[in-house]
Amino acid sequence: MFDDLFKLLRSPRWVNSPIARRFGFGSELSYEEDELEDSPSNWTKISTSGHRPPVRSGHSSLVVGDMMYVFGGYNDGNCHNDIYAFDLVRHHWIHIETSNGISPDGRASHAWCTSTDKTKLYLFGGSGPHWGQTNMGKLLQFNIRDKNWTIVEAQGTQPPPGYGQSLCAINNKLYLFGGTSGHVYVNDLYVFDEVTKVWKKEETGGKRPSPRYKHQVAMVGNRMYVVGGGLYDPPKGPIDTYYLDVDTLVWHEVECGGDIPKSRIAHTISQLASDPSRLIMFGGRDDSGSRQNELSELNLRTGEWRIYYNEEGFQPDARDFHTSVVHNDRIFVFGGSNGVERNNDVFRYTMTHQPSTLLILAMQVLHQNLDYIPNEDLEALPFELKIGIQNINPDVECSFNPTWYMLEDQKQENAAPVM
C-alpha cells in the first residue's frame, strides 16, 4: 500500500497538481526501502474517549478496517455479552447496541474471527462463569453492517462445547483447533465451510501439536501457525510452534532458534500487516506461573526469535488473558489480568514510524484541502487514504464514501481459567 502511495505522490499527475504545488509535494519526494524497517520505540498508554468497556479478561478482540471489535470477557463473577468498537485512529470507544436486541450468552475464552470477506464476525464456544460446567458450542455470527447477531444453522460433525480454542478464516473456511472442556484437552481440527454451512472433523497427518488451550494462531498463505498454549499450565521449556498446511492437512513442527521465550498460555500473537511472516508475542503466563510483559518476535522466514528491549523503561504491567491487535503496524493491547485485578486500559507499541506518519499526514492534508482537489484525483487515491479521510471527519460527503463501513454511532460522534 505504501508503494502505491509513494508512486501516486511522485506521479506527474500529482506533482503538477495545485495541491502538490501548494504543499510542496514535488519530484524530489523519495523513499528508501530501509525506511520501512522496524524502529522499536517505547510503549504509550492511550487516553481514550467515548463509552469505555468495563474491566475484563478472557475477552476477544479483532480488527476490521480502523475498528477494533471487543466481545465478552470475565470480571467479578460475571461473564460479559457486550460488544464494543474502538476507533484505532481517533481512540474513541463505542458501545454497539444490536439492531435486533439479541445478544449471545455472556462468556469468556471463546474463539472469534472475521469471515473471509470481512463483513461478519464469527463466535464459537467459550464458558460462562462456572468454568467447565457452562461450556458453549453454538456458532454465531455478528453482521458488522446490520449490527445484529444470528445463530448459524450448521450441519455436519459439529465441535463439542468447550473453550480456549482458536478460530481463523481463509478461503471461505473456518479452522477451529484445540481447546478444553475444563478437564479434557484436545488437539482436534474442525473445519466449517462458510458457503455450505457444514462442519467437518478433519483427520490430519504429520506431527500434530499436543492437546492444548489458550494458544494463538496466525495465517500466512496456506499455513495456519499455532504458537504456544498448553494444559492448565504450559509445558516446561521453550515455547513451541507448529503449522498446518491447509491444502494437505499435514502438520509440521517449526524448528526455532534465537532468544526463544518460555512456553506460555493466555498470551497474544500480533501479525504485522507489512510483513505477515513476523509474529509479535506479548504477555501470557509461563511454565513457572509468572505473568509476562515482554515483547518478542518470531520471524517465520528464519525461524528466529528475538526480544524487544524497551530503552525508555515504560511498558504495560505483566498480564494474561488480554488481547492485542495490529493496525498500521502498531500493536494495541487491551485489558487482561495482572493476577490482582483486571483492567480496561489500552496500550500501543509502534513498530514503524515513517510510513505511518506519512499516511496520517497525507490524510490530514488531503482532508483540509478537499475543495482544491478534483474529484477524479480523489477517486485515484488508495483505499486506505479514502477511509482515513472519512475517519478524520465522518460527515465528509465524497463519491467514494463507503457508508456501510462506518458505524452509525460513529457518524454521530464528533470526535483452565477462562480469564
From TrEMBL:
Output the InterPro entries linked to this UniProt entry. Kelch-typ_b-propeller
What domain of life?
A: Eukaryota
Q: Which keywords accompany this UniProt record?
A: Kelch repeat, Repeat
> Which Pfam families does the UniProt record give?
Kelch_KLHDC2_KLHL20_DRC7
Name of the protein in question: Uncharacterized protein
List the source organism.
Answer: Phytophthora nicotianae (strain INRA-310) (Phytophthora parasitica)
